[in-house]
Amino acid sequence: MSKVIAVEKIDDWLDTLNETHRIFAPFKPGGATRFEGYQRGKELDLERFAVSSPKEAFFPATETIFNFKLGKENVSETVVSLESQVKNQNQIVFGARCCDAKGLATFDTVFSGSGYQDPYFKKKRNTTLLITIACHQPANTCFCTSVGGGPADPKGADILLTSLDDKYLAQTFSTKAKTLLAGSFFTDATQKDLKEAKDKNEAARQKLKTFSVERVSQKLTKIFESEYWNEKAAKCLSCGACTYTCPTCYCFNLTDEGKSTGERVRTWDSCMFPQFTLEASGHNPRPKKDHRLRNRVNHKFSYFPTQHRMLSCVGCGRCIRHCPVSVDIREIVRGVQEV
Amino acid sequence: MAGKPIEMRNKKTKEQLENLKTQVEETLSQVDFVIGYAKGYDVLHPTPLFVRSTKDAQALIWDDFCINNLATYLPSQKRPGGLFHPHEKIGLVVKGCDSRAVIQLLQEGIIDRENFKIIGISCQGKVDVKKLKNRVPIERVENAEIKEGSIELTVDSRGQKYPLEEVLYSKCLSCEYPTPLIYDRLVGGEGSLRSKGPKEFAQDPYHDVEEFEKKGVNERLDFWEQEFSRCLRCYACRDICPFCYCQFECIAQTRIPHWLSQKTASKENKFFHMFRAMHLAGRCTECGECERACPVDLPLLLLHKKMNKKVSELFGYKSGINPKLRPPLIIFQPEEKNIEEEKWE
């Protein structure tokens, strides 16, 4: 189904959707654009790239797994309450980029693939619709076309919006999505609209520089012990800016917070932190930052493709854009082929 | 600002780069590697360069965007799991503001003076990319040049122009040390550049703190709670800080004792930033790298400047100026001149 909506009607449409859904959209509070709960009047930002990815809608930075209450004298009096903490609410992620939607495929594989089924993730995933927007002005850090995506790739999206001057073309890619395009905000798209969208999307694709990642996976396994990693990691600070803004990084920590009463929480973790692999014995299998950077690149371009037949990098460029020392994963991956 | 000093500025910057390359090449005979700047993924983002050969040195750059405080790499030498071998000697390119970090680290006994060589470089102020970000889509900037007191940007093949004083780092507008306070070699020595930095725009270094102090306590609290609600707890602020060298002993992440909740709500985030501010009081040299590194643009320097202002009022001390002095919060005196404990209730 292809419809069009006037730019000035977007807010009204979101208002209507907001009555039945919890909406995450890119807003611009205090400078940095990020995905937040929708509220009319907040400044929606569909032009600039959001700092963090919309993975927060499925995989919040902090999530309560269960609550507990410890018995004072006797362990047998300890109460663990296991009632579901996941709210049963329909969600919409609005204004995500195509790379963000593609990133969710990594989450689907890990949290609801053939192995472990994560109820916390699945419940939110199954009740969420994704409305993506095609990129017409890629950033100089974007490389989606190099990792199998594209600025208007509808993969993973329920609805793809394409900006056409004073209106948006809305194309549906799931049955559920069709119900969202009902109502007076939309009119049928013409052949001219479709043609214009196709041309614009193709022009955007042409703006992106594409490099090959073919055989990177095999090459990575061969250069595991190479000095290359030492060179590339020299400037890395071991912070989590890359992994926390990444739309595919799914690693988490589990901690019990509180004393006599408290909760077990799942929070984001980062393979770039020295503590990530620190074992209770004090041994750390990845004690140095070159080990950790090597792991991040291998995970996305070798381990994950080997296990799941897909890259776990979507080329959004956030890790490059937000790295305080401009570590560039494109440069590292291209360099791997030349080692 | 008239056109002429800016023309001079660009000329000096180019001359400095040639001089810098020579100094780095010469330093290589005394150290294992020198850390300087190279071109990054775009014109606005230079990146640290580890020079191990004269060939590497050809990639060195020096321009209006070389902001990284490279002194942050010095403590790595002693960190467990740090990148460098403890016996390796390091050469480091430092600006005036960065040199304060080197001095502070020496004062704290974290680095050994004989293990590194400093190539100081006089600086005329750097462009704050976060200030540009609020004006143009920086992710599409194709070129940036300083001309006639302005910065000229090319975005989507179109030119845009902003006055330099609007886009320089605030710390540069109140810079007192354009020439490094400690060095083995100096590029562009005193006299060859304006000796006082971009004084044309001079501001009182604590004017922003004073402005903020005028607000009521609830207003200030609301402000910080709002700001900290955005924090991702990626620890980029901590990990780029030259003085946050605790690494995996940092109490933000230790399990035993479990000081700080891993939850990322505003309250917990505030606790993290508050204890970091306490730990940095009188140590922070206000390089602003924490604020630059923050992906969600938290105004962290305001917090650290406030603590420094307090230390300055109480102890008359300024961090990272004299390697022979000991910072007031790492020494003990039975009685402090400006703290009248007997009057406490």
Write a concise keyword list for the protein shown above.
heterodimer; A: 339 residues; alpha+beta; 11 helices; 12 strands; B: 345 residues; alpha/beta; 2 domains; 5-stranded mixed beta sheet; 12 helices; globular
Topology:
The complex is a heterodimer of chains A (about 350) and B (about 350).
Chain A: E1 2-6, H1 10-20, E2 22-27, E3 34-37, E4 62-69, E5 79-81, E6 91-97, H2 98-112, H3 119-126, E7 128-133, E8 159-164, E9 167-172, H4 175-180, E10 186-188, H5 191-207, H6 216-222, H7 228-233, H8 241-245, E11 252-258, E12 261-268, H9 289-308, H10 318-321, H11 329-336
Parallel strand pairs in A: 2-6, 6-7, 7-8
Antiparallel strand pairs in A: 1-9, 1-10, 2-3, 4-5, 4-12, 8-9, 11-12
Helix pairs in contact in A: 6-9
Chain B: H1 3-27, E1 33-38, E2 47-51, H2 54-57, E3 90-94, H3 96-107, E4 116-121, H4 129-133, E5 141-147, E6 150-155, E7 158-163, H5 164-167, H6 170-173, E8 185-187, H7 207-213, H8 217-228, H9 236-240, H10 266-280, H11 289-293, H12 300-315
Parallel strand pairs in B: 1-3, 3-4, 4-8
Antiparallel strand pairs in B: 1-2, 5-6, 6-7
Helix pairs in contact in B: 8-10, 10-12
Structural class of chain A: alpha+beta
Count, helices of chain A = 11
Poorly predicted ranges of chain A (pLDDT <50, ≥5 residues)? none
What is the total domain count of chain B? 2
Report mean pLDDT of chain B, rounded to a whole number: 89
Uncertain runs of chain B are 191-197
Radius of gyration of chain A using CA atoms only? 22 Å
Please, how many helices of chain B?
12
User: How would you sum up the major sheet of chain A?
Assistant: 8 strands, mixed
Q: Output the helix-strand order of chain A.
A: EHEEEEEHHEEEHEHHHHEEHHH
What percentage of the residues of chain A does DSSP assign to strands (E)? Answer: 15-25%
The best one-word shape of chain B is globular
Computed over alpha carbons, the radius of gyration of chain B is 21 Å
Helicity of chain A, as a percent range: 25-40%
Oligomer: heterodimer
Find the count of extended strands of chain B (DSSP E, 2+ residues): 8
Total beta strand runs of chain A: 12
Q: Return the average pLDDT of chain A rounded to an integer.
A: 92
